[in-house]
Specification:
- It is built from no helices and eleven strands.
- The chain has strands at about 10-15, 25-35, 40-50, 60-65, 70-75, 80-85, 90-100, 105, 110-120, 135, 140-144.
- The strands form two sheets. Strands 1, 2, 3, 4, 6, 7, 9 and 10 form an eight-stranded antiparallel β-sheet that branches.
Length: about 140
């Protein structure tokens, strides 16, 4: 028996835009800000956006499928990440499904963009002092 593996062209996954929650303020016990995978924004508790804040945005991931690539794809990533402040403090972000979600088809030699939103939860000023919080998450490309 002879087994001949299928050799696929390398795929590329690139970041088009970062996930951002803008500039927020909160009082008391905090709350959350959510950016859905389609881009709508909502807040809970005492969380608000400053009037001059940059607009919160979804992350956009671009997947390119080459001429000799597989046809059916899916993205996976960690559902929870931590954003840290350089002088102490951290917040938790729960990532939402992609838009589009599930398994998808990318025609050969073309690309498709995927939006990923998230929900950031803040507690109190002692846990989440003012400042710039940042973090990263990894995206895995699954195919068959």
């Amino acid at each position: 028996m002879l087994f001949v593996p299928q050799i696929c062209e390398a795929q590329t996954v690139s970041l088009v835009r970062n996930l951002s929650f803008g500039n927020i303020y909160f009082t008391g016990s905090g709350g959350s800000i959510s950016v859905s995978n389609t881009g709508s924004v909502s807040t809970t508790g005492t969380v608000g956006l400053f009037a001059s804040s940059p607009t919160p945005t979804t992350a956009i991931i671009r997947v390119y499928a080459g001429r000799n690539s597989r046809f059916t794809w899916g993205l996976s990533y960690s559902s929870t990440i931590t954003l840290n402040r350089t002088k102490g403090g951290s917040v938790t972000v729960t990532l939402t499904d992609t838009d589009p979600s599930g398994w998808f088809v990318i025609p050969k030699d073309s690309s498709k963009d995927f939006s990923i939103g998230g929900k950031m939860t803040v507690r109190s000023i002692s846990y989440n002092p003012g400042g710039y919080y940042s973090g990263t998450f990894s995206v895995t490309l699954n195919y068959f």
